Amino acid sequence: MIGKVDLHTHVLPEKLPDLESRYGVHGFVQLAHTSGGCAKLTIDGAHFRDIDSRSWDPKRRIEDCDRHGVQLQVLSTVPVLFSYWAPAEAGLDLARLLNDHIAALVRDYPGRFAGLGTVPLQDPDRAILELERCMGPLGLAGVEIGTHVNDWNLDDPRLFPWFSRCRELDAAIFVHPWEMMGRERMPRFMLPWLVGMPAETSLAACSLVLGGVLDRLPGLKVCLAHGGGAFPWTLGRISHAWSARPDLCAVQAGADPRRYAKHFYYDSLLHDPEALRFLLRQVGVERVGIGSDYPFPLGESIPGSLAESLAELTDSDRERLSFGTAREFLARGDPQPALSSSGATRSRP
C-alpha cells in the first residue's frame, strides 16, 4: 500500500537571520539555539515557543516518517512567521527566504516532501508575484495562509485578485489560524490555541462562503486546518441564519452554507474519534486527509492514528484518508466541480 501523506506539518530553517536587524523593524521572530538540538523562538525578547531539531532537520523528519508509515510530508512554515503586519518589502523578502528553504527540501528529498509556500498577503500584488514564483520555478504545490490578514477577513475585495490567481494556477491553499481574536481576554491555559484557533478557522470559512468568494471562484482548492476548527460544528447555526436572515447572510452566498462545506478539504486533526466521525458524516471521506501538525505538541504523535482507530471504515475509506484526499488536493490540472446556486454542480470554466 502507498504510504500515508501528512497534509499538515511545519518547518523552518535551522538558522534564521536577525530579522529585526535585516528589516529595521521590531516584532519579528528570533531563533536562538540552546543545546541538545533544541532552540527557542522569541518575539521582542519574550519567549514564544521551544522547538527541537524536528523543526528543521530533514533526516530526523524522515526517520519519524518511516517509523509511522508516512511516505510524504507536506511542509509549510510556522504560522507566526506569516508576518502580515510587517512592511510589504520585508514581508516579501521573508517569504522568499522561507520558500527557498522549503523548495530546497522538496528538491533534495524527492518523494518525501511536498511544499506549500507563504506570501505577503498584506500586499496582494507582491503576494501574486510570490505565488507565481512558488507555483513556477520553485515547484511548490500551493501556499499556506492565515485566517485573516490584519484587519481584512478573507473575503476582503483587496484579496480577491490573489485568490483568483490561485485558481488560475490550480494552487492548493492551506488555511491555518494565526493571531487569534480575543487574545487579550485569554492570557492563561493556552486559551488562544484552544478557543481562538477553532474560532479563527470558522471565521475564515464563513468569510469565504458568505462573502461569495467560492461562488465567484469555482474550483478554488482550500483546505482548513484542525478539522475545520469550529466551522463543521456550527454549520447548522450558520445554515439556519442564511435561511432565517437572508437580508444579512445570503447577500453574496448563492447556496445554503451546508453545500459549501463539501467544497473545502479538511485535515483529520481532531483528537477525538467521535469528532472525526462527525466531520466525515458532514462532508464525506473524500474531503478529509491526514494532518498531524508535526512536530508540535498539540499535534497527533502518530500521524493518522485517529483515523486508523475507526473500525467501521472500509479499506477504500482508509486509503482515501491516508493518501487519496491529500494527493487530489495537491495535484494540479484536475479541477473539482463547483456549486451552483441551486446546489447542482457545474464545471469550472
Describe the structure.
This protein is α/β, with parallel strands linked by helices. It has a single domain, classed as TIM Barrel, CATH 3.20.20. Helix content is 38%, strand content 17%. β2 (29-33) and β3 form a beta hairpin. α3 (88-108) runs parallel beside α4. The longest helix has 21 residues, at 88-108. It is globular. The two termini are 35 Å apart. Residues 334-349 have low confidence and may be disordered.
Written as H for each helix and E for each strand, in order along the chain, the element string is EHEEEHEHEHEHEHHEHHHEHEHHEE
Helix and strand composition category: alpha/beta
Strand order of the largest sheet: 1-5-6-7-8-9-10-11
How many separate helices? Answer: 13
Q: Which fold name corresponds to the CATH topology? A: TIM Barrel
List segments where confidence is low: pLDDT < 50 over at least 5 consecutive residues.
334-349
Calculate Rg over CA atoms: 19 Å
Q: How many discrete structural domains? A: 1
What is the arithmetic mean of pLDDT? 92
Q: Give the CA-based shape.
A: globular
